[in-house]
């Protein structure tokens, strides 16, 4: 069942999103060679606690951390760890914030020090593909319109689109219907209606789109060692332009 949100529910999700944006902006200041993703995770855990919020994914199906931290060839669900970030790495930090029952979800890929031109372009195209998908997230369009727009752009720029992981509805739990693939055909799939709240979170790879999962049964990485980037927003479908709850550049 798809839960269409009330004005009050959306307002509460916006408060959670505002806090999530604040966390990402703090993380952006922290990212540098020599810091560990475990340090970042500990910061997020403490920051949310101090602001009366909960890291919703901690404990979700047994996931043990407040954040997912995916480095270089890791696509998603990377475990924060003690290894120090190196100059030239790219790292995606993904988290879900629960503030008084309102949820918000956002991932962002960060450059660590001096990233090569191809890595920076991967990040740029992935971020742009997110916003190209968001442009299609409006009442009357279909889920396939979002994925088709992302896939057409990303593949046209020479990158592949991960198919094993998708966007999703959100609230009252982390993952709700509908699934939101980042590939597909236009005019196909569920029709979008006002009040739906979804995530759009394209993951683009340098090489093959396929993934494999580590022995921890969580971390997905590229099958060929190519790097992967991801950007994600939580979106409200309206009668007009979509509302980006987790927008960082208001």
Would you kindly provide a written description of the structure presented here, covering whatever features stand out?
- By secondary structure, the chain is of the alpha+beta class.
- It has a single domain, classed as Creatinase/methionine aminopeptidase superfamily (Creatine Amidinohydrolase, Alpha-Beta Complex), CATH 3.90.230.
- Helices cover 28% and strands 24% of the residues.
- It contains four helices and 15 strands.
- It has helices spanning 7-30, 37-50, 117-135, 143-156; strands at residues 54-55, 68-71, 74-76, 90-99, 102-111, 160-161, 167-169, 176-180, 197-200, 203-205, 211-213, 220-222, 228-230, 233-236, 243-244.
- Strands 1, 2, 4 and 5 form a four-stranded antiparallel sheet that branches. A three-stranded antiparallel sheet has the order 3-12-11, with no helix packed on it. Strands 6-10-13 form a three-stranded antiparallel sheet, with helices on one face.
- Helix 1 (7-30) crosses helix 2 and helix 3 (117-135) runs antiparallel to helix 4.
- It is globular.
- The two termini are 32 Å apart.
- The mean pLDDT is 97.
- A divalent metal cation 1 binds at residues 94, 105, 232.
- Pfam families: Peptidase_M24.
- Belongs to the peptidase M24A family. Methionine aminopeptidase type 1 subfamily.
- Its cofactor is Co(2+); Zn(2+); Mn(2+); Fe(2+).
- Keywords: Aminopeptidase, Hydrolase, Metal-binding, Protease.
């Amino acid at each position: 069942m798809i839960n269409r949100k009330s004005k009050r529910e959306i307002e509460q999700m916006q408060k959670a999103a505002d806090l999530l944006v604040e966390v990402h902006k703090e993380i952006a200041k922290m990212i540098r060679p020599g810091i560990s993703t475990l340090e970042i995770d500990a910061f997020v855990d403490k920051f949310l606690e101090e602001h009366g919020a909960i890291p919703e994914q901690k404990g979700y199906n047994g996931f043990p951390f407040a954040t997912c931290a995916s480095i270089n060839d890791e696509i998603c669900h990377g475990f924060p760890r003690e290894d120090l970030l190196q100059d030239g790495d790219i790292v995606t930090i993904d988290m879900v914030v629960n503030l008084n029952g309102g949820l918000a979800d956002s991932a962002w890929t960060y450059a660590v020090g001096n990233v090569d031109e191809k890595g920076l372009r991967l990040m740029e195209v992935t971020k742009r593909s997110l916003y190209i998908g968001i442009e299609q997230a409006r009442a009357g369009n279909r889920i396939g319109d979002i994925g088709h727009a992302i896939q057409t752009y990303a593949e046209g720029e020479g990158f592949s689109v991960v198919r094993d992981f998708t966007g999703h509805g959100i609230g009252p739990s982390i993952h709700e219907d509908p699934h939101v693939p980042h590939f597909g055909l236009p005019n196909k799939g569920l029709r979008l209606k006002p009040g739906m709240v979804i995530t759009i979170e394209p993951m683009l790879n340098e090489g093959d789109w396929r993934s494999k999962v580590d022995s921890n049964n969580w971390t997905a990485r590229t099958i060929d060692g190519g790097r992967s980037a991801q950007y994600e927003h939580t979106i409200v479908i309206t009668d007009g332009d979509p509302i980006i709850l987790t927008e960082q550049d208001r």
